[in-house]
Design goal:
about 140 residues, mainly alpha, 2 domains
Protein backbone atom coordinates (compact mmCIF):
# COMPACT_ATOMS: atom_id res chain seq x y z
CA UNK A 1 0.00 0.00 0.00
CA UNK A 2 1.43 3.34 -1.02
CA UNK A 3 1.83 6.31 1.28
CA UNK A 4 -0.93 8.14 -0.58
CA UNK A 5 -3.35 5.22 -0.24
CA UNK A 6 -2.60 4.95 3.47
CA UNK A 7 -3.22 8.63 3.90
CA UNK A 8 -6.56 8.40 2.03
CA UNK A 9 -7.61 5.42 4.16
CA UNK A 10 -6.69 7.25 7.35
CA UNK A 11 -8.49 10.38 6.18
CA UNK A 12 -11.60 8.34 5.34
CA UNK A 13 -11.63 6.75 8.80
CA UNK A 14 -11.14 10.15 10.44
CA UNK A 15 -14.12 11.51 8.48
CA UNK A 16 -16.27 8.56 9.58
CA UNK A 17 -15.31 9.07 13.22
CA UNK A 18 -15.85 12.82 12.93
CA UNK A 19 -19.33 12.29 11.52
CA UNK A 20 -20.16 9.78 14.27
CA UNK A 21 -18.97 12.23 16.93
CA UNK A 22 -20.96 15.05 15.33
CA UNK A 23 -24.09 12.90 15.19
CA UNK A 24 -23.62 11.89 18.82
CA UNK A 25 -23.15 15.51 19.83
CA UNK A 26 -26.38 16.48 18.05
CA UNK A 27 -28.20 13.66 19.84
CA UNK A 28 -26.85 14.82 23.19
CA UNK A 29 -27.95 18.40 22.49
CA UNK A 30 -31.43 17.25 21.42
CA UNK A 31 -31.80 15.04 24.48
CA UNK A 32 -30.59 17.84 26.75
CA UNK A 33 -33.12 20.24 25.24
CA UNK A 34 -35.91 17.74 25.82
CA UNK A 35 -34.83 17.15 29.41
CA UNK A 36 -34.62 20.90 30.07
CA UNK A 37 -38.09 21.35 28.59
CA UNK A 38 -39.39 18.62 30.89
CA UNK A 39 -37.79 20.29 33.92
CA UNK A 40 -39.32 23.65 32.91
CA UNK A 41 -42.76 22.09 32.48
CA UNK A 42 -42.54 20.36 35.86
CA UNK A 43 -41.50 23.61 37.53
CA UNK A 44 -44.35 25.55 35.88
CA UNK A 45 -46.80 22.82 36.88
CA UNK A 46 -45.62 22.95 40.51
CA UNK A 47 -46.02 26.74 40.47
CA UNK A 48 -49.56 26.44 39.12
CA UNK A 49 -50.52 23.91 41.80
CA UNK A 50 -49.00 26.16 44.45
CA UNK A 51 -50.94 29.18 43.15
CA UNK A 52 -54.15 27.14 43.13
CA UNK A 53 -53.49 26.06 46.72
CA UNK A 54 -52.92 29.66 47.82
CA UNK A 55 -56.09 30.78 46.09
CA UNK A 56 -58.10 27.97 47.68
CA UNK A 57 -56.72 28.85 51.11
CA UNK A 58 -57.69 32.51 50.64
CA UNK A 59 -61.14 31.48 49.44
CA UNK A 60 -61.66 29.30 52.52
CA UNK A 61 -60.64 32.15 54.80
CA UNK A 62 -62.86 34.56 52.89
CA UNK A 63 -59.91 36.80 52.06
CA UNK A 64 -60.44 36.87 48.31
CA UNK A 65 -63.18 36.80 45.74
CA UNK A 66 -61.57 36.40 42.33
CA UNK A 67 -64.21 34.96 40.00
CA UNK A 68 -62.78 32.78 37.26
CA UNK A 69 -59.31 32.63 38.81
CA UNK A 70 -59.80 29.03 39.98
CA UNK A 71 -60.92 27.92 36.52
CA UNK A 72 -57.99 29.78 34.95
CA UNK A 73 -55.48 28.01 37.19
CA UNK A 74 -57.13 24.62 36.60
CA UNK A 75 -56.97 25.16 32.82
CA UNK A 76 -53.29 26.11 33.14
CA UNK A 77 -52.62 22.92 35.13
CA UNK A 78 -54.43 20.80 32.52
CA UNK A 79 -52.47 22.44 29.70
CA UNK A 80 -49.10 21.98 31.43
CA UNK A 81 -49.96 18.36 32.30
CA UNK A 82 -50.79 17.67 28.65
CA UNK A 83 -47.54 19.27 27.48
CA UNK A 84 -45.56 17.20 29.98
CA UNK A 85 -47.30 14.00 28.87
CA UNK A 86 -46.61 14.80 25.18
CA UNK A 87 -42.96 15.52 25.97
CA UNK A 88 -42.64 12.14 27.71
CA UNK A 89 -44.30 10.37 24.76
CA UNK A 90 -41.85 12.01 22.32
CA UNK A 91 -38.95 10.81 24.47
CA UNK A 92 -40.32 7.26 24.55
CA UNK A 93 -40.68 7.22 20.74
CA UNK A 94 -36.94 7.80 20.42
CA UNK A 95 -36.53 4.45 22.18
CA UNK A 96 -33.19 5.01 23.86
CA UNK A 97 -34.58 6.07 27.25
CA UNK A 98 -35.76 2.54 28.08
CA UNK A 99 -32.80 0.59 26.67
CA UNK A 100 -29.83 -0.30 28.88
CA UNK A 101 -26.50 1.39 28.14
CA UNK A 102 -24.07 -0.33 25.81
CA UNK A 103 -20.69 -1.34 27.23
CA UNK A 104 -17.62 -0.74 25.04
CA UNK A 105 -15.79 -4.01 24.35
CA UNK A 106 -12.46 -2.16 24.24
CA UNK A 107 -12.39 0.10 27.31
CA UNK A 108 -15.53 -0.90 29.22
CA UNK A 109 -17.04 2.61 29.04
CA UNK A 110 -20.83 2.89 29.19
CA UNK A 111 -22.42 4.41 26.11
CA UNK A 112 -25.95 5.14 24.92
CA UNK A 113 -27.83 2.06 23.71
CA UNK A 114 -27.79 3.23 20.09
CA UNK A 115 -24.09 4.22 20.03
CA UNK A 116 -21.93 2.92 17.18
CA UNK A 117 -18.68 4.33 18.53
CA UNK A 118 -17.47 4.60 22.11
CA UNK A 119 -17.67 8.08 23.58
CA UNK A 120 -14.59 7.32 25.71
CA UNK A 121 -12.06 5.61 23.44
CA UNK A 122 -13.64 6.34 20.03
CA UNK A 123 -13.45 2.74 18.84
CA UNK A 124 -16.30 1.01 17.07
CA UNK A 125 -18.68 -0.85 19.34
CA UNK A 126 -19.55 -4.30 18.09
CA UNK A 127 -23.03 -5.21 19.30
CA UNK A 128 -22.33 -8.96 19.47
CA UNK A 129 -19.59 -8.58 22.10
CA UNK A 130 -20.99 -5.51 23.85
CA UNK A 131 -24.18 -7.30 24.88
CA UNK A 132 -22.22 -9.17 27.53
CA UNK A 133 -21.45 -5.94 29.36
CA UNK A 134 -17.80 -7.00 29.77
CA UNK A 135 -14.78 -5.47 28.01
CA UNK A 136 -12.82 -7.61 25.59
CA UNK A 137 -9.38 -8.81 26.52
CA UNK A 138 -7.50 -7.24 23.63
CA UNK A 139 -4.06 -5.71 23.54
CA UNK A 140 -4.75 -2.91 21.06
Amino acid sequence: MSKNESWELLLGKAKEIGKAVGDAACDVVDTSKQKLEEVRLRHDLEDAYENLGRLYYKLLKGETNEPGKTEQLMAEIDCLSDQLRQNKERNKKKGTDNEPPKCCPHCGGLNRADASYCSFCGKEIRSARSDTGMPEDTAE
